[in-house]
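QUALITY CONTROL LOG
STEP: pairwise intake check
CHECKER ROLE: data steward
CRITERIA: each record must contain a sequence immediately followed by its structure tokens, with no blank fields

ENTRY 1 OF 2
RESULT FIELD BELOW
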Amino acid sequence: MKMRVFVTGGTGLLGNNIVQELLTKQHQVTALVRSIDKGMRILGSQVELVEGNLQDIEQFAHKLSGQEALIHAAAYYSEYYRHGNDDHLHETNVGGTISLLEAAYQQGLKNVVYISSSGVLESQQDQSTDESCSYDEATNDPYFRSKIDAEKEIYRFLDSHPSMRVVMILPGAMLGPGDRGPTPMGKFVTNFLKGKFKFILPGSMNIVDARDVALGAIKSIHTEPSAERYLIGGRNYQVEEIFKILAEITGKPNLSKRISPAKLMLLARIMALVSKITGKPPELRLSHIRRLQENFRYNSSKAEHDLQVSFRPLSETLSETTQWFDDGGYI
């Protein structure tokens, strides 16, 4: 069934893959973008573009009228990998989200998919993590903190708006074509391709293809009931395995030297000190290194069952992502 779908964050990694998948399925798409020119370059002429941002929702609220679904993928991401303004982060990711829901409700749009983050979930060393896990209240990552606060506010909103339907998607660390930022995971790949890594990093990470998340988000438009959460976390891979696949795909030399977790943490601390002096974001952040050592695994069985989500092989994701970076001159 063809639908009229409004997408925020349409030029981001996940957002542009959601838009392209909606177009493939012949849905009518309206996308919120910060710049019409940029939106046209990325999304093309098949999409109705609306210029605006989450700080001034009244500017475009009328465009929500007549839409049959809203996929809210926009967020202020920069705090996830560099220093910035915590107030602006909270204002956008929490306040902007609730204001958007209020505007949608007033315009009669009551079917919403909200893109949260797997980072809101508390993970335990060598354990499986799923939607039933508690919030990671101890997180010191401002981006994850904003997503936790946003989810809590959404539940409060739903309590006072029982006719509203909101489904939450919690993606893992995403990779895929269209990563113009690039995102932290995109930088991880391009740094390998540029030869910036000198050692095999100890630990593991959970990776999901943004296109697989996009498909799950679109499928969730039709699921019931409201307030459901779906973790789409992908699979867990040792960093050594990721480096090996990248070397095989690109012909770049694989790394043979290793570094211990303790030495890697020391190196990350040194980089953090240098970052404070230079004002430039560090290549390695302590929070990322700690997360690598946790070796936890995401359990996405609920999304696999309810949304028929499946995960393409990592080699396919890395091959097509590196090709996209190469074609775009990122390497």
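ENTRY 2 OF 2
RESULT FIELD BELOW
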Amino acid sequence: MNSISKSILIKEVENKSDLKKFIKFQFSLYKDNPYFVPPLIHDELATFNKNTNPAFKDGDAKLFLAYRDGEIVGRIAGILSNPLNRKNNTKNLRFGWIEMIDDYEVAKSLFEAVENWGKQLGMNVLTGPHGFNDFDPQGMLVEGFDKTATIASYYHHPYYHKILEKYGFVKEVDYIEFWSTVPKDKAVPEKMVNAAKWVSEKYNFKLLKYDSVKDYVKRGREIFKLIEESFSENYGTVPLTEEQIEYYTKKYIGYINKDLIKIVVNEKDEMIGFIITMTSLSLALQKAKGHLFPFGFYHILKALKTYKILDFYFGGVKKEYRDKGVDLIMAVDIVKSAIELNFSNAESNQELEENSKVQAQWKFFNPVMHKRRRIYRKEIA
């Protein structure tokens, strides 16, 4: 399906060769940009492979490339999530993986291609940037263009959001990210330690301390089940199938550090809270330049053992145990681990701007809000 608008050719990605061009376009667009963190090409190929990504079993995606004079000048993905629309009783089409040169007509042509597909599907609203679900990067950078991206997010040029707003997109929700300093010069406040101990004894909660990563891996499915429950009420969350839980467990389990994951269980050994953190891989992926081999794997393995920046990824508490101090128990222990492992800084990754409870946990790290990402919305005409 090809279309032409003012010398711009919009071509749908139809084969592996096109997909590789779709993925690699960002590498040239951000060449020599110190804040861009390239994804692994292998992972991106798997994400859009209908045989490997379970999201395609109850959804679809169309990828488009924009050409001008034979050169790629933009890309975009349209994403249909049937589970999301059933959950919210909506006719929503998502867009994601948006990249383009600083040219309004290029963006306009890309969005028109996605909107036309949305019309064919009977959709009435377009939102994004999203992925297939919360485990894909989401949100467009609107503040913090001089900050390095984490592996859970994308960097965007400062002109992106201006082009979207010119096209008619408006703010749906914002995510904010915090940069913090680990309090090396002092231990965790005794008041916090005592409060966490009191909560544990009162409710018979236990912070798991396994000696091996394999023991945490065994509870991987429980973690993902609790992730889904914890985030189910948040904006834009997509219900996961058992197959997707298995898919993501295998995908991310290799990055686990037993000292950087915190799990709290009740007296029945049922998981009621968790925090997943890991050492930053941003610099390693910049050095890898999209490839695991020949040297990318080495850079990643080295980064996993280099404790400098602590990235927070997911955290949640089972609904019936909220406001009982579970988060305090985990916060105290992650601060202890950050101090013991000599981390200098920590980064929160994305949190909804109105999520004051999560943000309150950062007060012990001297937080500074340094990035803002936005989900945009536009009615499909």
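INTAKE CHECK: passed for both entries
DESCRIPTIVE NOTE, ENTRY 2: The mean pLDDT is 90.
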